[in-house]
Design brief:
Elements: H1 9-17, H2 30-41, E1 59-60, E2 63-64, E3 71-76, E4 79-84
Antiparallel strand pairs: 1-2, 3-4
Length: 88
């Protein structure tokens, strides 16, 4: 990937996070120090690319949004209701 010449020290650090090879001077601000720390640690906090492995999955009316689900929506009398449809 090709990067334009960075216009600031912060941009140089961010570009390096994405694979650039800018020469970095020691941090001169708290923001630079934090960005530098993220760069040195190898990125963000890790994680997963598999939705099924996440914690605290969202729910609608107590129905966890996990796996292949067919959820229906009905509106009656100004009230919105969600329900799980049966799969065939």
């Amino acid at each position: 990937m090709s990067f334009p010449k960075p216009q600031s020290r912060n941009e140089a650090i961010l570009q390096n996070m994405l694979g650039a090879d800018n020469v970095l001077e020691p941090p001169q601000s708290r923001v630079e120090a934090l960005l530098w720390e993220i760069l040195e640690s190898g990125g963000g906090g890790g994680g997963t690319t598999d939705y099924e492995h996440l914690n605290n999955l969202p729910q609608i009316n107590g129905t966890e949004l996990k796996g292949n689900r067919n959820l229906g929506l009905s509106v009656a009398g100004g009230k919105v209701s969600f329900y799980e449809e049966e799969t065939q």
